[in-house]
Write the structure tokens for this entry.
Amino acid sequence: MSAPNKSFFSGLHLAVTGFAAFVTAVAAIVGLAINQGWLSGNAKSGTGGAGTSVSTAAIPQYSVEPLALEFQPVGPSTASVKVTNTGVVPIAVENPTVTDASHFGASVQTCAGSVDPGRSCQLQVTFKRAPGTFNATLVIRVTGAPRATEVAIKATAIL
């Protein structure tokens, strides 16, 4: 008996189906890699597989409370601002700055060094009392973060 006669097109159908399955699998793997941040350098897991050169650098993430401070004519002349690491890697809070250094000061208080994920630290803002009303901005920078956070400051004093 001779082998059945198969046309070229019947074999082509199987090849196309196999190639479509391969493309679907590659698309699924690429989708997973994008979702996990492996292709953007923002890996969620923080580890690559053995023998890989996947970048696991994560962008520092943090929150700041409060986003506005107000010093009253009578009362404390210092206030704290809380910086919380909401990301997956330690953060380094840089020395804060104020836009009106003649009336306000800022220090890292407990934010020296690195702040581990889930932990918080305090910045201290000081109002150098003088008669009048003053406005300034506290600028908070975290090393590696895409932008600084600004805290509005208002102070009134009667001397």
